[in-house]
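just leaving the lab so this will be short. what follows is a protein written twice so to speak, once as letters and once as structure tokens for the fold. can you read through it and tell me how you think this chain folds. thanks a lot i owe you, the record is right below.

___
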Amino acid sequence: MDFGIGFLSNNVMLPIIDLFYSIIPSYGLAIVALTLIIRAALYPLSAGQIRNMRRMRIVQPLMQKRMQEVKERFKDDPQKQQEEMMKVQQEFGNPLSGCLPLLLQMPVLLALFATLRGSPFAGANYTVNLQILPAEQIERIQPQAFATAPQNIYVADGEHLKVLAIIPGGNKLAVGDHTKIEYQTDTGRPFTAVMAEHPDVKLTPEWKVIKGQERVKIDAEGNVEALQPGDVTIQGTIPGLAADTGFLFITALGHVGAIDPDGTIHWDIVAMVAFFGVSLYVSQVLSGQNSTNANPQQDTVNKITPVIFSGMFLFFPLPAGVLMYMVIGNIFQTLQTYILSREPLPEELQKIVDSQAKQEQTEQKSLPFEPKSSKKKAAG
């Protein structure tokens, strides 16, 4: 039994979507509700991560100073140096410990991501690999049925079932052979029979040869003719039930890409990509990652990171529904960072902050800059 990404998607994400859609029939609002519920459930983990980042930002200057002192003191004794550096790290904490909450929540976020990339918000893709052989070789191969992994397909509002693509005679064909790729449920029921019960829903599967186009022919019904020996990859797609459904300023939840091949610009996608970058930058500012006291090179990296991440969605496009989830999730993260950044510091951290502030004041007073130096010159 699958207890991984698929289990979370099928047994947690989809039931939440169905629940909210049954209350308010809007897939857009269902995405909003699903995102907020998952983010709220992960709040304790992400809060720990944010608090750890805040702590490490405060103690890092002092920790680096102590590390440098250890290096100089035990430069002739590498083993002792390593032991003392480990003690310093234990005293101030391990910077990598903040990664643990992120790792723990990754399966949930990946399952949420996978859910929004599939039905009903976007088309479900099935990959079928064929091997075309000369007629004399196919005789030595025992036919074996081929089936893809099943996927949840919404066939009506709130109604979904697992559907897989199959080739009853197997995916090894001889040149000149004919076969048919069919869809059926995990219980063996033809997908065409399921859709006959929903005449108002148009979920016509589409087929596309993405490798070895010269080796096969395939029609709209999934009938395949083998033409030449070699490997072939065919992608079948069942459209998403809500792929063309809009929400607020979003034209279609399942639309992929900001610019169409004909040059049409989808400003709703552009706006979400831009807002994602802005919210990511604001979150960095609130968390102190863009502090002017940081290393200049690191400061530059932090500033261009939002641009790189948001620009990535223009070159590696995602369905609009997935982008909407990411924007909402980022807003939630930004608010969480803002709230936690206003928490009083623990006593030991506050002492470090006060000590650093006093040290900076002492250094400023001891520097021979204006106005003291200018007064002495004037007096002379």
